[in-house]
Amino acid sequence: MPVDFTREDKTVIITLNRPEALNAFDPELAGAFSKALIDFMEDDSLWVGIITGAGNAFSVGADIATLLPGLKANSENQFKAAPNIMRGLKLWKPVIAAINGAALGGGLELALACDLRIASENAMFGFPEVSLGLIPGWGGTQRITRAVPAAIAAELLFLGRPISAARALQTGLVNKVVPRSDLMTAAKNMASGLCKSAPLAVRMAKQAMIQGLDLSLEWGLELEKSLNDYLVTTEDFDEGCKAHLEKRKPVFNER
Hints:
Elements: E1 3-8, E2 11-16, H1 27-42, E3 48-53, E4 57-59, H2 70-73, E5 95-99, E6 102-104, H3 106-113, E7 116-120, E8 124-126, H4 140-147, H5 150-159, E9 163-164, H6 165-171, E10 176-178, H7 183-195, H8 199-212, H9 217-231, H10 235-245
C-alpha cells in the first residue's frame, strides 16, 4: 500500500509508504494520500492527524519520472484528480508533520501545509525546484513566506539549497527537533495534548487563523466573533465550563 492509515484512539497516523523512492509522489501515492486525508476528514471519531514517511525520508516531493511529465499535458487539472492539504482540500482538523528525514520540494510543501511540525535531528528542508526550471507548485511559494522571515524564504526558493533541522528550528520553520528515535513519541504526545482540548474549538481556531490571513483585521475580527458565537451554543462549551467549576477533566463529545 502506498499509504498506511493507522488509528490510535482519536489520532490517525498517515504514513507515506514508498521508502524505495524516498516517498516521492507518483500518481498512485498522490491518489492514495488524497483518499487517506478525505477519510480522516470525514471520520468523526478521529480528531488529530499525524503525517510521516516510511524509511529514511519524509518525502522528496514529486516523482520526476512519473508525475512531472504530466505537468504540461494536465497543467489545468493536475490537482483536481487528487485534492490534498497542499491544494484543493480544506481540512480544519489539526495535522502534525512528523518529519523523519528529507522534506524536499513537495515534501516541504506538505510539511508547510500541516499545522505543527516536529523534525528529527537528521531532517533537512529545501525547495530544489529551480534546478528543474520550476517553482514549487503545491503552495510552497505562498506558505513559506507565512512561516519564516522573507529573507529565509527567498534563500530556500531562489538558491534551491537545503537547510538543516537545527536551522529550521532557529528560523521557526519547525516547532521542535528531537532525536530520530523519539520522533513518533513526540508527535503522539503532541496529538494527545490536542485531543484534550475541545475538538470543535481547535478546528475553529485553525479556521480563524488560516482564513484570517486573507482578511483585513476588521473582517478577521468578524470571522472570529462568528465562529466563537457558534461555539458558545455547543455541548462541548457547556461541558468545558461545567468541568472547570467542578474541578475535573472535561469529557468532550464533538457536539
